[in-house]
Design goal:
Blueprint: H1 12-25, H2 32-36, E1 39-40, E2 44-47, E3 52-59, E4 66-75, E5 87-94, H3 97-102, H4 106-120, H5 124-135, H6 139-157, E6 167-175, E7 184-192, E8 204-205, H7 208-213, H8 220-229, H9 238-249, E9 256-258, E10 267-271, E11 273-280, H10 294-299, H11 319-323, H12 327-330, E12 377-384, E13 395-402, E14 405-412, E15 417-422, H13 426-435, H14 447-455, H15 457-460, E16 465-467, E17 476-478, E18 482-489, E19 495-502, E20 518-521, E21 528-531, H16 534-547, E22 554-557, E23 560-563, H17 566-579, E24 585-587, E25 595-600, E26 605-611, E27 615-624, E28 627-630, H18 631-639, E29 644-648, E30 651-655, H19 657-669, E31 671-673, E32 676-680, H20 684-690, E33 696-699, H21 701-713, H22 730-745, E34 749-751, H23 759-769, E35 776-780, H24 785-795, E36 800-803, H25 809-815, E37 820-825, H26 826-831, H27 833-836, E38 840-847, H28 858-864, E39 867-874, H29 883-893, H30 901-915, H31 918-928, E40 932-933, H32 937-940, E41 947-954, H33 958-980, H34 987-1006, H35 1020-1034, E42 1039-1043, H36 1046-1059, E43 1063-1066, H37 1072-1083, ...
Parallel strand pairs: 6-9, 10-15, 11-16, 17-21, 18-24, 25-30, 26-33, 34-39, 34-40, 35-37, 35-38, 36-37, 38-39, 41-46, 42-44, 42-45, 43-44, 45-46
Antiparallel strand pairs: 1-3, 2-3, 3-4, 4-5, 6-7, 7-8, 11-12, 13-14, 14-15, 18-19, 19-23, 20-21, 22-23, 26-27, 27-28, 27-32, 29-30, 31-32
Helix pairs in contact: 1-4, 8-9, 18-19, 19-20, 22-23, 30-31, 33-34, 34-41
Protein name: Superfamily II DNA or RNA helicase
Biased composition (Basic residues): 304-315
GO molecular function: ATP binding; helicase activity; hydrolase activity
């Protein structure tokens, strides 16, 4: 059990038993009967990071097996990271509906009972550890079972052995251009492997239909082809669509043959057609020989084109002269000895006098690479991109794969190749047929015709791509491109996104940064070559990717991504929309876009409200374009921070910004349960604000009555009740009126005034108001029980307060009636919870309500079981460490207001505590503000004497410093070793070690004798305290002295006794009646000092006789110190109060003071934003020891 510290092993049985007992006790009694009828199988035990997991299989009567997990792990007091005591906590998990709703269920109860029973049978830790070891999962045995099961499944999945040899499919093509009905047929042949694996048989013809019907195909491609070719071919059109689609699928297939006697292999390709102009050398024109490259020309036959540098005629000017540009970029066009040796310019391809001179327009001239000449003649040829094939030698079939997608099939018998080329439309099909005419096969273009075709290639390119040689490619121009986002909706949901470079002249938009750097382009003005800057493209594209979060989407290729859901797609579109003109342009395929069909405003919302005893049911919808969108879909959209909501296939409606804010407020108040939206009664005011006059509302009478009651309460300002014998300050009268309004409304709340502002007297006023309605139950810490009795007798003599511990307990609960106030401690209430639950209470008051800040404790659960007409919490610190405390408080006082813990955590706790979400912080504050009233002394109690806080630092002696540093270095050495040994698996133990060392260091900072019993000397802090006490006594002052360590107070007592200094003393062991006697004695002048244990006397005491407060050691949470200070600085104090904090220099105490700022922000933010300071992690605690703060 290495997840628990060695010094805790001795109490393992007790700790584990208590944890399971708490888990069992946390279940409602309604589960008992069902749990008792369930069968629990022996669990397996596995060790996790910081605890153990018991994995159960539980089965009820005629129910399927249910998996249950009980996890046991260490737990520490969140208020006290340095707490010495440790306990174990048991958490449970189950997948059943009951557990999802209540976090408890019969399955988890039955599992807890099983563990309780088994542990009760074991005597001592030895037997218990042996029992737990027997449950531990045997990984090796599990591995054997895994292999056996895997092999069994594989054997069962293997097909039955067959006597037949392996087979495969061969596809045979028949091209018959003479047949209009069946120009193309594809037939499957089944081949068998020869014996010994030596090749395949010739094959026998089979029918595609039979292959599909008998489920004989295992290859996915063969299945697709068979499906397309299984339709009987009675004629062209629809019957032939499948054949051409199948042929395209067979591209790259390794087993395709001609369907003839020889069954020769044939290669199938899929490509595109182009119209290419092939340059032909002048002296070889008669033979139609393609032009040689420059390197070949130098070593091959001598060209008849000769360069003459002496003279330039008007027919052979340089290109720079022709277009008016710098010769250095274009070079000269060589002169020819013949009039047709070079193409100078074509001012107007349709002008017969074009050779008379250039027009001077750059677009009229074709650019030449430096040093090259234009060949005299060009051969126009149809070619296949990427494949060397002579189209004119092929059998050609024109077909269609669909009514709007023509194809052309080229079958070359000589090379045994078949090419399928997709055409854009029927016009392209007609153009290809024209180019294949035999009478154009030997056509040659002179320079004038070639230039005319090149300049007009842009009109042809939409139908068939025109590929020009460099001589005709046109001038180089700079790009005017932009980065665009190409988007295409995915089937079902989401988007495909591609980032591309766009220039209106590009035939296809290239990938940013990918070649070519020179892009041939065709336009109505002629061919050009566009110069791209690949480096700039990559830089700019990366900026777009990072700014708009494209890299957070799923990658789908080079600069391509997939938004897999509509939520992700709309999130991206929203970011692009918000960027305005700074966002790249979005390009959609024609007819495929996300369409926004109007805006959703409050006027379009219809809401229906019905009623139940404790909540209202809410339904509603909006109608857009005849489509009804449920209110719940709108709430989900705003929860996911989406502006758009789906109203049909690729159709969305935008929620107006003002309506989004109102819907967010409504979502904060509604609880979704089993597909229904519920509104707690306490949340009616906020819902009323959201569902104002511009929303169409249909509600029951109960809703209208609730609204009328709220409106009447807004003007309810009662005077001080006659039975309250006290003069209320203005803020106290406001507090009483606030309580009275909550009481009449029937919803619980928290009176969270600062300590000392009179929460008790305000509460007595409302108890007098409600006295006639039945008995009140006040649950309070033991230390303040008698104070309630005294305050009631003093200020509310009409009430009849009774201490539960001082009476016949069974009888007092039964006979309590109107005007009775039963006062009980939290401990006794939890112990006798069933007694208190036997009757209803008119009013339930929780004094120091932070006692129930942990909703999982038995005390919290017991209080929630009580039946009370109205509940009130009193706490100066309703929120100390984290928002879970606030949720636990309202779960008891106003059930349903904050919903389930899962809902509260996702909507508020995590966004606020982890991400500091200001909007969620304000939303929570807005939600709880009507139910929390908090006033601070500096705001409402101007007449209260001032309070001064001073920190006094003590410098440790050399001997003390050595002890402290030795301990600190030893702690770091041990914790560093623990960090590297075992990593996560020992995190729980490592935390225990860390907290233990922190406690030791804090004690050494106070007095070495707290750690070293043999220490005989004094301490720097004790000497500082004694000098301060002497000074205070000389000035006739009295002081409260607080410490969290009882040992420290005992050291101080010994010195005070030796010096004869009178004092009072109080710690957790002081009996209740003795506590009050000592308080009264101090108030009456007995003792100059009052030594008090911080936890035992930090609340519920009135000690205004002291005007100084001394804190001997800093506490982790400053709220606890402030509560202690308020024992003296409260109503009744007439002198200024001075607070001294004694801190040892260069010790962990200085680090603790740095934590106080965050904690104080948390308390102050209850109404202003409910910020939460982060809880300390183990590494944070270790950093304290290192004297490092983040």
């Amino acid at each position: 059990m290495d997840w628990i510290a060695e010094d805790q092993i001795g109490s393992l049985g007790l700790l584990l038993g208590e944890a399971i007992e708490r888990l069992v006790d946390s279940h409602d009694q309604e589960f008992d009967k069902r749990a008792a009828m369930m069968s629990v199988k022996t669990p397996t035990l596995t060790q996790g990071d910081d605890g153990v997991r018991f994995e159960f299989q539980v089965q009820g009567n005629r129910q399927r097996l249910q998996s249950v997990v009980i996890t046991v792990h260490p737990q520490f007091d969140q208020d006290d990271p340095g707490a010495e005591a440790m306990q174990l906590r048991a958490d449970c998990e189950c997948g059943c509906v009951s557990h999802q709703r209540d976090l408890r269920c019969p399955h988890t109860l039955a599992s807890g009972w099983w563990l309780q029973e088994q542990m009760a049978r074991r005597r001592g830790n030895g037997q218990l550890i042996e029992f737990l070891g027997g449950l531990k999962a045997d990984a090796v045995a599990a591995g054997k079972q895994f292999v056996d099961e895997l092999l069994r499944r594989a054997k069962n999945a293997r097909p039955e052995p067959s006597d037949q040899e392996p087979s495969r499919l061969q596809w045979r093509l028949r091209v018959n251009i003479a047949s209009q009905a069946t120009p193309l047929t594809i037939t499957p042949f089944e081949q068998r492997q020869r014996k010994g694996g030596k090749g395949w048989t010739k094959g026998r013809e089979v029918r595609s239909f039979d292959l599909l019907e008998q489920n004989l195909l295992t290859d996915p491609l063969d299945s697709q082809v068979a499906s397309l070719t299984s339709i009987p071919t009675h004629g062209f059109r629809e019957d032939q669509f499948g054949m051409f689609q199948a042929l395209r699928l067979l591209a790259g297939h390794e087993n395709v043959m001609w369907d003839d006697q020889n069954a020769s292999p044939v290669e199938v390709f899929s490509s595109q057609l182009s119209l290419t102009l092939q340059p032909v050398e002048v002296d070889q024109a008669a033979k139609a020989k393609p032009a040689q490259s420059k390197s070949t020309a130098k070593t091959g036959t001598k060209s008849s084109v000769k360069k003459n540098t002496k003279k330039k005629t008007s027919r052979s000017k340089s290109l720079g002269e022709l277009v008016g540009t710098d010769n250095s970029s274009a070079g000269d066009i060589a002169e020819s000895e013949t009039s047709t040796a070079t193409l100078t310019a074509v001012a107007n391809p349709t002008d017969e006098n074009a050779n008379d001179g250039p027009s001077g327009t750059p677009n009229d001239v074709l650019a030449l690479p430096p040093g090259e000449t234009i060949a005299v003649q060009f051969r126009p040829r149809l070619s296949v991109e990427g494949i060397d094939i002579d189209v004119h030698d092929c059998e050609v079939i024109f077909g269609q794969t669909s009514p709007v997608e023509p194809v052309v099939v080229l079958a070359d018998r000589k090379s045994d190749r078949v090419v399928v080329c997709t055409l854009n439309d029927s016009a392209a099909s007609g153009l290809v047929q024209f180019l294949l005419r035999d009478d154009y096969r030997d056509t040659m273009l002179d320079e004038k015709s070639a230039a005319k075709l090149a300049l007009s290639a842009g009109t042809i390119d939409p139908f068939i791509h025109v590929s020009l040689p460099p001589q005709l490619a046109g001038p180089i121009q700079p790009t005017t491109c932009e980065l665009i986002l190409q988007m295409r909706p995915r089937p079902g949901a989401g988007l495909k996104v591609a980032l591309r470079v766009h220039d209106g002249r590009f035939r296809n938009d290239p990938v940013p940064g990918q070649p070519p750097e020179l892009v041939p382009c065709l336009s109505d003005q002629g061919p050009v070559r566009v110069q791209r800057n690949l480096t700039n493209e990559l830089t700019d594209s990366q900026k777009i990717i990072e700014r708009f979060g494209l890299n957070k989407l799923s990658s789908d290729g080079d600069h391509e991504w997939v938004a897999v859901s509509d939520h992700a797609a709309l999130d991206l579109l929203g970011r692009l929309h918000d960027a305005g003109e700074e966002a790249p342009r979005i390009v959609w395929p024609e007819g495929e876009t996300f369409r926004v069909r109007g805006e959703i405003t409050p006027k379009s919302l219809r809401v229906q409200i019905d009623d139940s005893p404790d909540w209202f049911g809410v339904t509603g919808s909006v109608t857009i374009d005849g489509v009804e969108v449920p209110l719940q879909d709108l709430l989900i959209a705003v929860r996911e921070d989406r502006q758009l909501v789906r109203v049909g296939d690729r159709k969305f409606a935008k929620i107006s910004e003002a309506f989004r804010r109102r819907l967010t407020q409504l979502a904060d108040t509604l609880v979704a349960e089993k597909g229904q939206l519920k509104l707690p009664s306490a949340a009616v005011p906020m819902a009323q604000e959201v569902l104002s006059d511009d929303v169409v509302l249909e509600a029951t009478a109960a809703w209208h009555q609730a609204i009328e009651r709220l409106e009447s309460l807004s003007n309810w300002n009662p005077d001080r009740p006659d039975g309250l014998d006290a003069t209320l300050r203005d803020y106290q009268l406001d507090g009483y009126r606030w309580l009275s309004r909550l009481s009449r409304w029937g919803v619980g709340g928290v009176l969270a005034d600062d300590m000392g502002l009179g929460k008790t007297v305000q509460t007595l006023g409302i108890l007098i108001d409600r006295a006639s309605e039945g008995p009140a139950l006040v649950i309070a810490p033991t230390s303040v029980g008698e104070n309630w009795v005294r305050e009631a007798a003093k200020f509310a003599p009409s009430l009849k307060p009774v201490l539960y511990r001082d009476c016949d307990r069974d009888e007092i609960i039964k006979i309590s009636g109107p005007g009775d106030v039963l006062i009980v401690s939290y401990q006794l209430m939890q112990r006798d919870a069933k007694r208190f639950a036997t009757r209803p209470w008119s009013t339930l008051v929780l004094d120091e309500a932070q006692f129930i800040k942990n909703s999982q404790t038995k005390t919290s659960q017991a209080i929630r079981m009580l039946e009370a007409d109205w509940r009130l919490g009193l706490s100066g610190t309703p929120l100390e460490n984290h928002l879970g405390e606030l949720w636990s408080l309202f779960r008891t006082l106003s059930p349903g207001l904050l919903g389930s813990w899962q809902r509260f955590r996702s909507r508020f706790a995590e966004p606020i505590e982890r991400h500091n979400d200001a909007e969620r912080r304000e939303a929570l504050a807005r939600l709880v503000r009507p139910f929390i009233l908090r006033r601070t002394k500096d705001k409402v109690l101007k007449e209260l004497p001032p309070r001064t806080e001073i920190t006094l630092r003590a410098e440790l002696s050399d001997a003390e410093r050595k002890l402290y540093e030795d301990a600190r270095l030893a702690a770091l050495a041990e914790l560093t070793h623990a960090s590297s040994d075992g990593a996560k698996s020992h995190e729980g133990r490592r935390r225990i070690q860390t907290l233990s060392w922190l406690t030791r260091l804090r004690q050494l900072a106070c007095h070495p004798a707290l750690v070293e019993p043999t220490w005989k000397g004094t301490s720097a802090k004790l000497e500082l305290l004694l000098s301060l006490v002497d000074e205070l006594r000389d000035g006739d002052h009295r002081a409260l002295v607080f410490s969290q360590f009882v040992k420290h107070l005992n050291v101080v007592r010994e010195v005070l006794d030796r010096r004869g200094i009178p004092y009072q003393y109080l710690d957790g062991a002081t009996p209740s009646h003795e506590r009050q006697r000592r308080v009264d004695a101090f108030q009456n002048g007995e003792g100059d000092l009052f030594l008090i244990s911080l936890k035992a006397g930090g609340t519920g005491l009135n000690l205004t006789a002291a005007d100084y407060v001394l804190h001997l050691d800093p506490w982790w949470n400053p709220a606890v110190e402030d509560q202690a200070t308020d024992r003296a600085h409260r109503i009744g104090q007439e002198r200024p109060v001075t607070v001294y904090r004694l801190v040892a220099e260069r010790t962990i105490e200085e680090q603790i003071l740095q934590l106080h700022a965050d904690k104080r922000e948390l308390v102050a933010g209850v109404l202003d934003g409910t910020d939460a300071a982060a809880r300390l992690q183990t590494q944070d605690l270790i950093n304290l020891i290192k004297n490092e703060m983040a």
